[in-house]
Structures are given as structure tokens and as C-alpha cells.
């Protein structure tokens, strides 16, 4: 089956700010993957394409300001659809946080995970409507305010 194996949001220094794992990896293997992927991305010229064959997977990434958004997918998957989903995710982050920055990811990590969960379910794209996703996030905010 085709799926997302993991999502990484890393800064230029290699610090992983958000990671979501849909496939089972040992803790040590996760750290190695994060480090290895960062080394690959940081050395990659900006004009190169956003797809990288990596081990038995394909990495789809985009850089926004100082952050790398990376999805690890199956090689048979549609890379362009995942590249677009990264862009849509960043647009939603921007709209939700009001011009998102790295500190929003650090201090609002639980909201970022909620947003990821609205987008992706069990390693597959679940929702592609920005309005639907942001409406759901607003509903979660309302529930949070009432508690």
C-alpha cells in the first residue's frame, strides 16, 4: 500500500521541531533518519527538484523561510500531490497562526499536531479543503475555550 511513513519539520540547524511517525521505527532509528535527512536537505541546491530517492522511500520536501517540511512516502506514490499538500499545510499554518514562525511550532506544537491530524490520517491525505480544515480548527478552539 502507498502511504506517508513520517512527517518532519526541521529548521536549518537540524533541530526537528515537529515529527509525526505513521510507520514503526525504533527511537534510535528515528534520530538517525532525522539527522541523515537534514544533512541531505541542507546540502541540496535550491534549484534542484523537491523529490529525493532515499533508501526504499521517496522524500518530498519544501523549504519555507528557515524550515524544511518533509514527507517520507512510498516510491509509487504521487509526489506532486504530496508536494501540494505540504504547500496547503503551510498555508493553513499561516492562516491559523497569522504568519507562522518557528516559535509557533515550538510553543503551539499541540495545535500543529491537531492541524496535521486534520490533514493526514493513518499516513494518508484525509482532507484537502483549507476552509474545512480551518473550520474544524475553529471548532476545536471553541471546545477548548469552554473547558
Summary?
InterPro entries: AP_complex_ssu, AP_mu_sigma_su, APS2, Clathrin_sm-chain_CS, Longin-like_dom_sf. With 147 residues, this protein is an alpha+beta fold.
Describe the protein's architecture and organization:
The chain has a 5-stranded antiparallel β-sheet, sandwiched between helices. The protein has a two-stranded antiparallel sheet with strand order 6-7. It has 147 residues and is of the alpha+beta class. Helix 4 crosses helix 5. The protein is built from 5 helices and 7 strands. The relative contact order is 0.16. The chain has helices spanning 27-43, 79-97, 102-107, 109-119, 130-146, and strands at residues 4-11, 16-21, 51-54, 57-64, 67-73, 120-121, 124-125. It has one domain: 2-Layer Sandwich (Beta-Lactamase). Residues 3-143 form the AP complex mu/sigma subunit domain. This is AP complex subunit sigma. Keywords: Cell membrane, Coated pit, Endocytosis, Membrane, Protein transport, Transport. Belongs to the adaptor complexes small subunit family.
Spatial separation of the terminal alpha carbons = 40 Å
Q: Please state how the strands of the largest beta sheet are arranged side by side.
A: 2-1-5-4-3
Q: How many separate domains? A: 1
- Share in β-strands: 25-35%
Subcellular location: Cell membrane; Membrane, Coated pit
Protein name: AP complex subunit sigma
Family: Belongs to the adaptor complexes small subunit family.
Domain AP complex mu/sigma subunit: 3-143
Amino acid at each position: 500500500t502507498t502511504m506517508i511513513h513520517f512527517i518532519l519539520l526541521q529548521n536549518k540547524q537540524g533541530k526537528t521541531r515537529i515529527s509525526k511517525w505513521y510507520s514503526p521505527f525504533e527511537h534510535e532509528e528515528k534520530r538517525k533518519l532525522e539527522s541523515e535527512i537534514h544533512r541531505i536537505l541542507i546540502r541540496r541546491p535550491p534549484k534542484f527538484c523537491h523529490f529525493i530517492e532515499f533508501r526504499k522511500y521517496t522524500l518530498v520536501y519544501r523549504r519555507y523561510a528557515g524550515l524544511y517540511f518533509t514527507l517520507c512516502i512510498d516510491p509509487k506514490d504521487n509526489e506532486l500531490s504530496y508536494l501540494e499538500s505540504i504547500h496547503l499545510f503551510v498555508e493553513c499554518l499561516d492562516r491559523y497562526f497569522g504568519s507562522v514562525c518557528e516559535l509557533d511550532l515550538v510553543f503551539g506544537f499541540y495545535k500543529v499536531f491537531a492541524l496535521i491530524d486534520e490533514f493526514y490520517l493513518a499516513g494518508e491525505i484525509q482532507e484537502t479543503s483549507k476552509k474545512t480544515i480551518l473550520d474544524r480548527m475553529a471548532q476545536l478552539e471553541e471546545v477548548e475555550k469552554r473547558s
